[in-house]
UniProtKB/TrEMBL annotation:
InterPro entries, alphabetized: AAA+_ATPase, ABC_transporter-like_ATP-bd, ABC_transporter-like_CS, ABC_transporter_ATP-binding, P-loop_NTPase
Name of the protein: ABC transporter ATP-binding protein
Coiled coil segments of this chain: none
SUPFAM superfamilies cross-referenced by the UniProt entry: P-loop containing nucleoside triphosphate hydrolases
GO molecular function list: ATP binding
Membrane topology: Peripheral membrane protein
Domain of life where this protein originates: Bacteria
The UniProt record lists the keyword ATP-binding: yes
Sorted UniProt keywords: Antibiotic resistance, ATP-binding, Nucleotide-binding, Transport
Localization per record: Cell membrane
Main location: membrane
Domain ABC transporter residues, every copy: 7-232
Amino acid sequence: MQKQPAVSVAGLVKRYGAKTAVDGLDLEIPGGAVTAVLGPNGAGKTTTIEICEGYRRPDAGTVRVLGLDPVADAAQLKPRVGVMLQSGGVYAGARAVEMLQHTAKLHANPLDVPELVERLGLGSCGRTTYRRLSGGQQQRLALAMAVVGRPELVFLDEPTAGLDPQARRATWELVRDLRRDGVTVVVTTHHMDEAEQLADRVAVVDRGRVIATGSPEELCRSGAESSLRFDGPPGLDLGGLLKVLPDGASVAEPAPGSYRVEAPIDPQLLATVTGWCAQAGVMPDRLTVQRRSLEDVFLDLTGRDLRS
Ligand code: ATP
């Protein structure tokens, strides 16, 4: 990872009339990693990303993309940043592959177009005009256009929305390859499994602010719902076990011989519990670590009610 953040957002505010879409948002996106921006509908993700892309102007706050101002330095950023928009941004009458070839020619060192077309399963629609492509094909073409110029940084707004499982997989593979090549990827998604699979870091946005950041593992480890369970002889000395556990941990025997330790789970905790069992001469049977999924974390953070 690079030391300087690839994207740095501080105190960002954006209003649409009386509606405050982004409300003092702070976010640092590290270089050379995949960052997933998650949030309920209307949280302000697209607005934030579009400000970073230079398509919208903020009402307050500062935004730096690769150290530059997305509006004032747009010309410098254009060849370095790839953008996949949620909807089109493409001339509907243009032929798919011609458009991609045209975009490739605007860059100094583009990807191989036929290879990219093949990878994203666009081979059969080379001469088809954009408006006649299926929704999923349009989506894949938009992704190809965003990456064909070998950008240093790429913004992908819901890249797999509406894609079939094969296309989704191809998209994931492409994102992994970008990451391997050192490209910074910022992706918004509503698919928690996608964020879990792809992202080095996650930022959860709600009501126009970032309310949590961390790696998917860090976020899933946090909170009381991570637990370690094991079976053993009934009536173990739980007070003794509690003494060796970190502050804030709890232990219980919800059913005779069935034990539950609640604490942030890490390798040290596992070692502490199994070490204590070894000293007590207890074999911890069916030892399992129960972790919250990213979806659990997301719902805990943003609430379970449908937003209007
Ligand atoms: P989604 O997950 O549904 O794509 P989002 O997190 O990307 O949502 P935004 O599209 O940034 O959210 O929208 C944030 C808020 O700003 C919403 O309440 C939306 O209705 C409002 N909004 C967005 N664009 C405009 C606009 N051009 N004019 C007026 N209101 C807008």
